Amino acid sequence: MVQQQGMVRVRFAPSPTGHLHLGGLRAVIFNWLYARHLNGKFLLRIEDTDRVRSKQEYVDSILGALAWVKVDYDEDLVIQSERIGEHTKVINELLFQGKAYPCFCGQQEPDETQEDEPEVGYKKYNGKCRNIKPTSEDLKKPHAIRFKVPESVTQITFDDLIRGPITFDSDQLDDFIIARSDGTPMYNFVVVIDDAFMRITHVIRGEEHISNTPKQILLYQACGYPLPSFAHLPLILGPDGKKLSKRDAATAVLDYKKMGYLPDALFNYMVRLGWAHGDQEVFTRQELIEYFSLDAVGKKGAIFDMVKLEWLNGLYMRQTSDQEIMQRIVQDVEPKFKELTVPWNEKELFALIALYKERAKTLRELAQDCIQLRNGPATFSPQELQQWITPTTGQHLALFLQKLDAVDTFTVETISGLIKTFCKELNIKLVNLAQPIRIALTGTSASPSVFELLVLLGKNESKHRLEQLLKVITA
Ligand code: GLU
Fold this sequence. Notes:
mainly alpha; Rossmann fold; 4 domains; 18 helices; 12 strands; binds glutamic acid
């Protein structure tokens, strides 16, 4: 069998029957990196032959998700439904050559691309129509087209680039349907015709497609097309070791945008699901392009770990400029961010972002922290009060309020100087004053530096919040 040769050409071929999910994203990333690493081409094909379930809205959403993670594709987008004439031509040729036949049994084949519709209940075809000679009258009746699996085939083996040789016995196959009775071609057929048309050299996709591969190989052979290499990626698993589901984590890529993840962080995280380069965790895109190879892709399913993704996202946030963070918050997470943080101006917001991004794990958390700081504490947690408020705290805060009143210019230097000297005078540890101040300003003792918070809130607001806490503890 002739192998597809020449420059590497890979593709991602989503069915627009839903949004791009994490499994799809990982397939995209591995294909894209493979192409970029080898200076090949990464192509995109929309597999919309399922006219009922395909929606333009999903095409747009998939393209939007790819743009968000900054994955570009080469050459023109191929739309499968626009190639229907080509598909029909090949079906007619196969019929003419006796490699396919009309079937009047009315048994429908489930669409293999729909992972949520496993082939349960599917009965192997008994071959009833395989050898009948239909008349032109018969051909007017509804009929599907089946591929005639050649009798000479006893086994089909392919050398998966990740899993090594995989063999299927022919008795695992039947004469599968390549076109439904309404004339629309089936996935296993069109994928071959289109991959050959696009001169795809490597088919890299999820392992749920392994069982489709022998059928596709038979079609390559029947059509006389050169065969691509195949690589099937391991599943992404939930914490219970089963296939990742919506119960475990959001599965749509664009949900991560709304949840406040940075595209580079998600990209970096997804690459490590199944691929490794020593024990390096953080990579620039350039490094990934340089290091990526299919040899380092594991066979075992990879567990999706939300905590690790959050950690990586936090790391990327700290490396991102405050301007970009603000822009992404407004665009992706909280369009009213600026309104909700009035009276702070841009400069003050940047200062706040710089302060909170040191600890936040997502843009959403960061935005919420800022908005919450703006609104002030609604209540004080009893546990926090119990931990940090001592019998002398009230007195200390009252004295501190007087000191604050005397300060004219609120800068980090003046405020930190004031607080440190004050603690020395009282002979108390900084933490014993700083924590009650934090609680007064934010409602909780887990917050960024009190000096910066006091400066950002300004004299009046800071005093007001300190007085509120004072009221609670002296009550
Ligand atoms: N349209 C198929 C899917 O979304 C593509 C399968 C393939 O890559 O061959 O699963």
